[in-house]
Request: fold
Amino acid sequence: MKIDITSKSGVIENDRAKHVNYIQQGHGAPVILAHGLAASLHDWDELLPELDSAGYTGYALDLLGHGESYKPADHAEFTFDAVFDHFSEWIDSLPNSAPMILVGHSLGGGIVLQYALRYPERVRALVLVNPFYDIQQLSPIMRFVYRNQLLNTRLIKLTPYWIFRVLVDITSVNYHAGHREPHVLPEHIRHQTALDFSRGSSGIYNIPYTLPYLTSDLARIQQPTLLLWGSRDQTLAPESFPRIENLLPNIVTSHVIRICGHVPHQCHPEKFNPLVMKFINDL
Reply:
């Protein structure tokens, strides 16, 4: 279900973070929502109204190079650190200074983990959704692709929406016998996913190879954490999620969402959202 949210945008005037496109809904304790690679703030269209109804303020942004946020012309600027700086400086610009609940999916999961390591006093709790925290989570082929900066992203830049849409439709087909729905993702989500792929800067695909080694630092994160993942993730190795469950010292609960891949918050919001809301309401 699509929702109507009043958009707000901010401009941070410094060398690292420029225009930040974001949306805000609700009034109350802050919940920050960070999407994954080649996605956008629309990842959270289903969760934001529930946060509002429960008395929270939900903030969702387009990360650097994504959606309608700032897109550097120089692809060398697309690094994990640059995305993190863009994210953290945007948070600094927000009026709500209370300790935050951070929700991160995939790349956004790595971003919020890094934020909790850098600024633990500002983080109340974490919700990790198929988090990307180690380059080894990628398949050997993808690690080879991301091992070095992509020198030629022209082909990605020239790829039209309809090709992205075909790829999204193919990868979302449900091959599991006995289920009526032909696609794991509903039509409007597949449309938005392809649109996000087509409007993101091609430089974003240089970000994964700059991911810092977070694994050895995870034991320092003491905040209560909810861990959620789809059992059929084809982007990140599903076995890597139980591994991070053992590395983080304060996992309150974890859940595997069946018949779902890399985006459980989009393929099964009717299961995902109640788990998130119960976790944050019980804090």
